[in-house]
Structure formats: C-alpha cells, structure tokens
Write a structure and sequence with these properties.
This protein is an alpha/beta fold. The protein contains nine helices and 13 strands. The chain is elongated and about 70 Å long.
C-alpha cells in the first residue's frame, strides 16, 4: 500500500518505525513546520521528523495542510492511505479525499471517550485505571470515525501522563498494522469498523497553563490524579500565602491522599491542617493531601522534608489561588 505518514510528536514514532520496516511504501512524512521560537526559547522537538529524515523519506511541512496548494501536492502523491498520529492539525474532508482509502488515526484513548488533543492527561485526571488506544477510519469530525481496532492498558497509581504515553504509543503499533490490513480487504463502500456512540463521547481539550491550578474543593484523591495527569506540563500548583510574607507559588510534584490524621486541625479546604518537620498536609474537599515533593517558584524540586527545613508553613496557612 502507498502511504503518507502524518506525525510530529513522540506518540507517532513507534508506528512510523513499524511502517518504515513494513512492506508498505512510505511516500512522504507530513509534519508540523519548524518555527522560529526566538533566541530565549528552544524550538519544539519533532522526533517524527528526525526519524523521517534519517530514513530518507520526503518531508512535507505545510503551515496549513488544508490549504489548496497543500491538498494539490498530497493529491499528486496518489496515496492509497494516510496514517495520522500526533500530527497537530485536523485534516479536512477535501484533504482526506486525496488518498484512495482516506486516512486512519491512532488516538490515545478508548473512543468515544476523551476525544481531543490531550486524551491521556484527561483520562488520568478523571481517575481512569484502564486506558487504551483506538485506530479510527477518519472522518471530517474530530476523532469521530468508525473504530477499526482497539487495545487496552491497565495503569498503576504511580503512573503519570509522562510514563503512560510511551506505553500507549508502543501498544498502538500492531492495531495500526491490523487496521491497514483491514482496509486492504475493504471494498470501499460497505460499512467498516464499529460506529462510535456519540452519546458516550467526552472531550479532552488541549491543555492550558491554568488547568494546573489546584481546586481544593476536589477530593484529595482527585488532586493526586491531577498531579499525575499534568506531568510534565502544565504541572500542578498552588499559591502559599505565608502570614508575614508575599505569596509563593509552589509546584506539587507528588502527593498522597490521606483520609484523616490525628493531629489535623479543623480548617477549610486549601488550608494547612498538619505541618511539622517531616510532613505537610493540606485539607481538601474530602481527605487530606500529603505533599511529598514540591518546588517553590524559581527553585529546584525537593523532598518535603528539605522544603520544611527552609520554609515554615503554619497550620491554618492558605494554599489557595
């Protein structure tokens, strides 16, 4: 089969590697363009492009893949299929139509749940313990096409988005290859795959920095899931208001949920309930958040004991907005 790969981020790399090693002909890689990030910022990493260049694959990097010239270029390649994963742009109906069989997309959730740009993050945020991938036959609507293949992954309470995404990327390789084989046998007209139930669809929008702010009305367990979900970005943070100083922004890198503590004082959510030389517990909407690793603004990450040696939070201090 004649294939054009669409990918940018690391989630696409294992499937792209498998396609390069397969009998299929890879006509080109379409990826996000290199942008000038300025002198003080690094350009975003593009591991998929690095792999394509090393393999000698033609690289296409349109600013807008749906612009008429880009669509015409893709049409000239006469591809049988587009394979899309972690690309960064949504392909229009006209763009998809330039490949004989349209496109398939490797998505990092068990669709129809968590449609959107950040499925792994939002699945962990909402406390899911079974994650997975879905390969869909693409439509013009976001992550809405029929499902050609799925695979599940059980995760542990120690897993974060940073540890789960590479596992899911590898998990998706065989389903991508299986989906291609399904399309090879397809007549191009009959119903293919499993239609998604739109009533079960949930959203997983692109992350914003503000998503990392702790809402202390949530349970301690939910806040722990937030910390796991937003590693490495945007992180999870709160603003400590000392009684005699300016507020200090604190990034919470790790924490445990505690049901109760004998020394906890009765305080509102977001206030320090227990603080001594070795522990810092903040009241949540239900339970206590026992902070284990923390990073004050402008400083490095540290164990909570080290932080408490240099800082002196007091019971009743506020960790709010």
């Amino acid at each position: 089969m004649r294939i054009v790969m669409f990918g940018t981020g690391p989630f696409a790399v294992p499937s792209f590697e498998a396609l390069l090693e397969s009998p299929h002909k890879i006509l080109a890689l379409t990826t996000r363009p290199i942008v000038d990030a300025g002198k003080r910022r690094k350009s975003p990493e593009n591991p998929t492009r690095h792999l394509g260049e090393a393999a000698g694959v033609e690289i296409l990097a349109p600013l807008d893949v749906n612009e008429p010239d880009s669509v015409a270029l893709l049409k000239s390649l006469a591809a049988d299929l587009f394979v899309v994963c972690d690309y960064g742009q949504i392909l229009s109906r006209d763009c998809l139509a330039t490949a004989r069989l349209g496109g398939i997309n490797l998505h990092g959730s068990l669709l129809p749940k968590y449609r959107g740009a950040a499925p792994v993050n939002w699945a962990i945020y909402h406390g899911e313990t079974t994650l997975g991938i879905t390969v869909i036959h693409m439509s013009a609507f976001l992550d809405a096409g029929p499902c050609l293949a799925k695979a599940e992954l059980e995760i542990t309470p120690c897993d974060t988005a940073a540890t789960v995404e590479p596992k899911l990327a590898k998990l998706g390789v065989l389903p991508v290859l299986d989906a291609i084989e399904t399309l090879l046998k397809w007549d191009g007209e009959s119903q293919i795959g499993e239609k998604q139930n739109r009533k079960l669809a949930t959203k997983a929008p692109r992350l914003k920095k503000s998503d990392g702010l702790i809402d202390w009305s949530r349970t301690a367990k939910q806040i722990v899931d937030q910390i796991r979900a937003f590693k490495p970005w945007p992180g999870t943070f709160a603003n400590w208001q000392p009684q005699d100083r300016e507020p200090v922004r604190l990034i919470v890198h790790w924490a445990d949920a505690v049901d109760a503590h004998p020394d906890a004082i009765d305080v509102a959510p977001g206030h320090v309930a227990v603080c001594d030389k070795s522990q810092l517990l903040v009241q949540a909407g239900k339970g206590l958040l026992s902070i284990k690793k923390i990073q004050p603004a402008g400083k490095r990450e540290m164990e909570i004991e080290e932080f408490l040696r240099g800082q002196k939070p007091q019971p009743g201090d506020w960790f709010g907005k």
